[in-house]
Amino acid sequence: MPRPCCCRRVAGPPHCAMFKPAGIPASSLEEVVLHLDELEAIRLVDLEGLYQKAAAEKMGVSRQTLGRIVEAARKKVAEALIQGKVLRIDGGVVQMPETRKFKCTDCQHAWELPFGTGRPVGCPECKSRNIHREAACARTGAGRGRCVRSGR
Ligand SMILES: [Zn+2]
Q1: Are residues 77 and 122 in the same domain?
Q2: What CATH number is attached to the domain comprising 129?
Q3: Domain shared by 58 and 113, yes or no
Q4: Cα separation of 3 and 147, whole Å?
Q5: Residue 50 CB neighbour total at 10 angstroms
Q6: Do residues 80 and 130 both lie within one domain?
Q7: How many domains does the chain have?
Q8: pTM (two decimals)
Q9: What spacing in Å lies between the alpha carbon of 98 and ligand 1's midpoint?
Q10: Which residues fall within 8 angstroms of residue 72, CB to CB, at 6 or more apart?
């Protein structure tokens, strides 16, 4: 079965797009750019503690590719920390969910909300609170996200 998208899946936009050493103006610092797929890889492997195989499946890449992404990401983070560089999070060939999908368990009504609007309190149709969030990008290709291609 062909993959629905060439892109690497990420869970969402980063909380913070830039980290820099305190007290030094960014203009006088060197910069390391961490791509969104690299950030996602270390989030899954280092923060959530997933095996690389599981992380690779989540991102829709091979385990070998995931290994390379993690390696590159760790090197960049280490470089920024040790050599005092600005770490900017940007770019990468990624597929980002634009909206979150919700579904009502009671009436089966499904709807979407953009990111950053908070979790809905109930179903807009039947007012049931028995709702759940659906995966934004499944292997079936349902709920295709926006493809971001920048910085590469
Ligand atoms: Zn409902």
Answers
A1: no
A2: 2.20.28
A3: no
A4: 14
A5: 17
A6: no
A7: 2
A8: 0.61
A9: 23
A10: 38
What's the CA-to-centroid distance between 135 and ligand 1, angstroms?
18
Kindly report the number of other CB atoms within 10 A of residue 14's CB atom.
15
- Which tens digits make up the pLDDT trace of 95-143? 766 677 889 999 999 888 877 777 888 999 999 999 988 764 433 333 3
Q: How far is the CA of 124 from the centre of ligand 1 (A)?
A: 7
> Tokens 């090197």 map to which residue?
75
63-102 per-position pLDDT tens digit: 999 999 999 999 999 999 999 999 998 877 777 666 778 8
What is d(CA 147, CA 139) in angstroms, rounded to the nearest whole number?
16
Instruction: Give the torsion through C-alpha atoms of 37, 10, 6, 52, to 10 deg.
Output: 70
* Length of the chain in terms of residues written: 152
Name the percent of the chain in helix, strand, coil, to the closest 5: 30, 25, 45
Ligand 1 centre to CA of 109 (Å) is 5
* Joined tokens for residue 85: 């560089």
Q: Long-range contacts of range 72-76, CB-CB < 8 Å, 24 or more positions apart? A: 72/38, 73/34, 73/38, 73/39, 73/41, 73/42, 74/42, 74/46, 76/32, 76/33, 76/34, 76/38
Distance 102 CA to ligand 1 centre (A): 10
Q: Are both 40 and 29 inside the same structural domain?
A: yes
